[in-house]
Amino acid sequence: MIEKPTYEELKQRVKELEKAEEERKRTEYMLGESERRLRQIIEFLPDATFVIDIEGKVTAWNHAMQSLTGIKACDIVGKGDFFYAVPFYGKPRPVLIDMVITQNQEMASSYVSFRKEEDRLISETYLYDFMGCGPTWLWNTASPLYNPEGQIVGAIESIRDITKRKQAEEALRESEEKYRTLIENANEAIFVAQDGRLVFVNPITALMIGYCPEELSARPFVELIHPEDREMVLNQHVRRMRGEMLSHPYSFRIIHKDGSIKWGELNAVLINWDGKPATLNFMNDITERRRSEQEQEKLQAQLAQAQKMESVGRLAGGVAHDFNNMLAVILGYAEMAMEHLDPVQPVYSGLEEIRKASQRSADLVKQLLAFARKQAIVPKVLNLNDTVEGMLKMIRRLIGENIQLLWHPGADLWPVNMDPTQIDQILANLCVNARDAISGAGKVSIETNNVSLDAYYCSEHAGAVPGDYVLLGVGDNGCGMDGEILDKLFEPFFTTKEVGKGTGLGLPPVYGIVKQNKGYIYAYSEPGQGSIFKIYIPRYFGQGEETQKQAPDESFKGGNETVLLVEDEPILLEMGKKILEKLGYKVFPAETSAEALKTAGKHQGDIHLLITDVIMPEMNGPALAEKLSASYPDLKCLFMSGYTADVIAHQGFLDPKIKFIQKPFSMKDLAAKIREVLES
After folding, report:
1. Can you tell me the distance from the alpha carbon of 544 to that of 528, in angstroms, rounded to the nearest whole number?
2. Residue ranges of domains in the chain
3. So what's the pLDDT on residue 108?
4. What does DSSP say about strands 380-382 and 416-418: parallel, antiparallel, or unpaired?
């Protein structure tokens, strides 16, 4: 039999039940308050947020979610069966929040991106057409909700429309890709300098400097700059880092990895790179432009030098004309005076000295004009030793006292047929070149010899032809030349001398003279070993002039022919008349072409020879000869001039068939030339 509880026991039980009921109500109230506060928090969240319980029913749907989906909270709260997925996918289906409840991550592959951070799931979704608004990007995050016992009782998911951010990121990516493409394919070097190093370089920068990007970033940029330009470049960089506006680019030299020097032209702007100031630099490779500018400057300097030499030559030509005329008078009258004296008379020896001095002065003028490249070209059969020996005194003056001149003449030299002034010009150019190659004291040697070039030698030396030659060699113990310089040695205007140094136009004229005389020139040289120039002049096989001149009676042979002498210098005209009359000729003198034509017109007999100056006022010598030949078809002509080759060239007087005698000339030379013309 069950014992009934006492009244006190029942009373105590009722109190416990009442207390439990109060506790339940209080708990329910607190839970309700908690849910209310949660709903308030969820409602005011900026992101679209909703909550489901463990059964998948919606328990909260905030205002942002309503705005995003167009579904009101009252129409969805309490509903399940994945209805909350319909606005996004057009049909009920599990979404991120369901993966929290089920702990099944097989759906992760349906998201563009997915990751898990502890119990929180994060994903990105791309919808091709969301709510009729076109392509849309959504950022989703879902977390579980726990009860006090730590059991999952639901889940919360927030959704954010990140379409604009994604569009901005895509635009930025496209922009970066575009600029990256532009930078990497740009024709100029583009690099970023920060804290003295290159933190970014495009391919052209690496190609220009020769280092790969990793090598460039590992070394200070200043090491890549030519030592002489570093201070300037650093100064420009500091000014740029201070924010100064530098409107003009500047150029400097860069040391390539292979040691060669490149020229860069740089412009830079101040930028922010990884939160720190840096310079964005744009650099063009102007190496070829600088080389071209330097070549242009060199050519300009050489042109100026050529023009200077041209001016010097013209001045020399003008001086030579007057000087030659004076020498002609001195030489002519001295020789005529000697003709009236006995060699044993004391005054005769004095006149002989005057004659010799005049001749030496004439030779000196020829040498000076040869150096100025303005002497008329008159080939003669000559012995090269005699010609060189006549030039030695002047060469010693050219090379200076600190350089020893060595002369090694060959024995029994074959004759050559060449203008001696061209030999003088060759020697002057080569010896001056040797002088410029010697620093301080040194030696210059000149040698001659007979040489026979065979087929084998000529096959090894381009331009050479087998045969007999007279060798003219000029050597020095100067600085020498490398192969690159040797290849360009005879190119017009080529020089290794600095601006303002050196003389004349260099070695190309030597090459031209040698080729003009069908000769051959070869240069041997090595850096630090000096240079040797070997010139091969063809042997002359005809009868030499020296042999012809050994007949003394023929030297002063005169005649009785009629000569028309035209000379615009009265003193020379008078002297020439006396010389010709002494030689037995009948002479008609004239100071002008007009007077000569008038005299010829009045003369009834023959005029056998016209001797005329080339350059005269009103009508020059060749024009006068052409006009007289109409009346005197058999008229022979001998032209004379104290002017130089360039002046004569302007008068059209370059035909080698025309007979010409250069002032000053001796009675002996004039007499021989007249007979040569009349008897030809």
Report:
1. 42
2. 17-167, 186-285, 377-548, 551-678
3. 81
4. antiparallel
